[in-house]
Automatic annotation (TrEMBL), chain A:
Belongs to the mitochondrion-specific ribosomal protein mS29 family. The keyword Magnesium does not apply. SUPFAM superfamilies: P-loop containing nucleoside triphosphate hydrolases (SSF52540). This is Small ribosomal subunit protein mS29. It comes from Pipistrellus kuhlii (Kuhl's pipistrelle). It is found in: Mitochondrion. The keyword Oxidoreductase does not apply.
UniProtKB/TrEMBL annotation, chain B:
PANTHER family: RIBOSOMAL PROTEIN S7 (PTHR11205). Signal peptide: none annotated. It is found in: Mitochondrion. It comes from Pipistrellus kuhlii. Belongs to the universal ribosomal protein uS7 family. This is Small ribosomal subunit protein uS7m. One of its GO terms (biological process) is translation. InterPro entries: Ribosomal_uS7, Ribosomal_uS7_dom, Ribosomal_uS7_dom_sf. The keyword Transmembrane helix does not apply. Residues 1-138 form the Small ribosomal subunit protein uS7 domain.
Length: 396, 146
């Protein structure tokens, strides 16, 4: 009977191929109806759910995929999602995220935050490829829907390595500026938070150089514009944005979410060198210095969600995945009271759901992948690791 | 033949990346096509791979035979495994030599495999050239003694 259901679902998809996005609604609603009927029969469930609003995701949605409208993806994630996920999105013409336990836990905490208390730090940690970055994206989507101001740094490791031009900072002689990375980030920040930029006013006068300055009371949008047009001052513009947002989030006009991926880059080493080949410590980079101030919990009115990442990290061993190992003593002390959330490999139910999702999109073309032994082989080879499973299924 | 210096890990990863590239390209075509053509578009990378190589196999080959002090190119039947070997060899040399310096092997190989699947492209052309040479030297077939 289940086989009949699966073939019915795939036949429905084949019938309206031109409307692939609308077409997903038909099998999903079919799936939601049949869900109640088949749920007691066996642990195999249909993998998508109709509930597209992250605020309403509950325990019962665990393991199911929900659809992210592509329009939202462009505004909420302009920096880009992880490259393999972006390829998958392009191939399937839709963005589907799985609802998993760590994300549900975080959503529960965020819904019950007390905004009068200092911002709480949540750190997502886990083995390589378990889904930390995508859980972070789930949280960001939730906060975007709830109208928070999102400060998203897609990968902090990109700021401490492979930088082409380092300028000596105009503001502080000891520090270094990174104009390219800062201007790119400002552009993306503008796309995400358009509506807040005109509402927030800065409360201090900043002087760029002898001829240009920004008066007190002008909007944050102007600071961002200045940073984008004058690339030399982009890093200082970023610093101003961060300082103002931190100061004003306690006032309660907006709620601030600071989301940093690969936060262990802030306290490690860099691969950048000065002209006399001596290495630069992270503190001497203005972007990193400002970000460290942001991640301290001396402000209220929002939350800080961080992800550790070994993949882009510098000078850290491959099997390091715990906070103490990746952050080092300095980082751990700086972040000290934080809530750690572990992201683990797929449970059997989630694994089954993932395979179902791939089969619904006919991603698994190999004949043996559809059989029970094929699934057992995939489970064994990937050990339930979402990243490995994705790479395996790519060529099957 | 993909492997160099015994680096099987690299050869394996190149092949898997090629299959993935073929699959993604076919999926793009599938989503872009109208419903009647969707049934004709093959998405399984393994069937495309096998069919492409079968389309590149020559039927008849040439062997240099020494007669009267001169070497003549004589048309000669090829065994199954020699045919498969030649198809794979031509495919790989084509991808290694005739590509832009920065183009990666999986990209180029996936492009060639898809063209060979549709009986177009440089490898199939090389097979046809071989057949034409064999046809042109038909008269020398008597020089073969096996």
């Amino acid at each position: 009977m289940l086989k009949g259901v699966a073939s019915l679902v795939s036949r429905v998809r084949k019938l309206d191929p031109g409307h692939l996005r609308l077409g997903t609604q038909a099998p999903q609603s079919l799936a939601a109806q049949l869900d109640n009927q088949v749920s007691f029969e066996s642990p195999r469930a249909i993998s998508c759910t109709n509930e597209n609003d992250p605020a309403k995701h509950e325990e019962k949605h665990e393991g199911l995929h929900y659809n992210l409208p592509l329009q939202d993806v462009k505004t909420v994630f302009p920096h880009g999602l992880p490259p393999r996920y972006a390829m998958q999105m392009k191939t399937f013409n839709e963005a589907c995220l799985m609802v998993r336990k760590p994300a549900l836990e975080l959503l529960h905490y965020l819904k019950n935050t007390n905004f009068a208390h200092p911002a709480i730090r949540y750190v997502l940690y886990g083995e390589k490829g378990t889904g930390k970055t995508l859980s972070l994206c789930h949280i960001i989507h939730f906060c975007a829907k709830q109208d928070w101001l999102i400060l998203h740094i897609p990968d902090a490791h990109l700021w401490v390595k492979n930088c082409r031009d380092l300028l000596q900072s105009t503001y502080n002689k000891q520090r270094f500026d990174q104009p390219l990375e800062a201007s790119v980030w400002l552009k993306n920040f503008k796309t995400t938070n358009e509506r807040f930029l005109s509402q927030i006013k800065i409360q201090e006068k900043y002087v760029w150089n002898k001829r240009e300055s920004i008066e007190k009371g002008s909007s944050l949008g102007e600071v961002v514009e200045q940073g984008i047009t004058r690339v030399r001052n982009a890093t200082d513009a970023v610093g101003i944005v961060l300082k103002e947002l931190k100061r004003q989030s306690s006032l309660g006009i907006f709620r601030l979410l600071v989301a940093v991926d690969g936060v262990n880059a802030l306290w490690g080493r860099t691969t950048l060198k000065r002209e006399d080949k001596s290495p630069i410590a992270p503190e001497e980079l203005a972007l990193i210095h400002n970000l460290r101030k942001m991640v301290r919990n001396d402000w209220n009115g929002g939350a800080i969600v961080l992800t550790l990442s070994q993949t882009g990290s510098l000078f850290k061993p491959r099997n390091a995945c715990l906070p103490q190992e990746l952050l080092g003593k300095e980082g751990f002390d700086a972040l000290d009271p934080f809530i750690p959330i572990q992201v683990a490999n797929y449970s059997p139910k989630e694994f089954e759901s993932c395979i179902q999702y791939y089969m619904e999109n006919s991603w698994l073309q190999h004949e043996k992948a559809h059989t029970e032994e094929g699934k057992k082989e995939l489970l064994f080879l990937s050990n339930g690791n979402p990243g490995q499973l994705e790479r395996l299924c790519a060529y099957l | 033949m993909m492997m160099k210096g015994g680096n099987k890990v690299l050869a394996r990863s190149l092949m898997t990346q090629t299959l993935e590239a073929v699959k993604r390209k076919q999926f793009e075509k599938f989503h872009a096509a109208a419903s009647e053509e969707q049934a004709n578009i093959e998405r399984n990378p393994y069937t495309i791979f096998h069919q492409a190589l079968k389309n590149c196999e020559p039927v008849i080959g040439l062997a240099p035979i020494l007669k009267g002090g001169r070497f003549y190119q004589v048309p000669v039947p090829l065994s199954d495994r020699r045919r498969r070997f030649l198809a794979m060899k031509w495919m790989i040399t084509e991808c290694r030599e005739k590509k832009h310096r920065r183009m990666l092997m999986p990209e180029k190989l996936s492009k060639e495999l898809l063209e060979a699947f549709h009986n177009q492209g440089p490898v199939v052309k090389r097979k046809h050239d071989l057949h034409k040479m064999a046809e042109a030297n038909r008269a020398l077939a008597h020089y073969r003694w096996w």
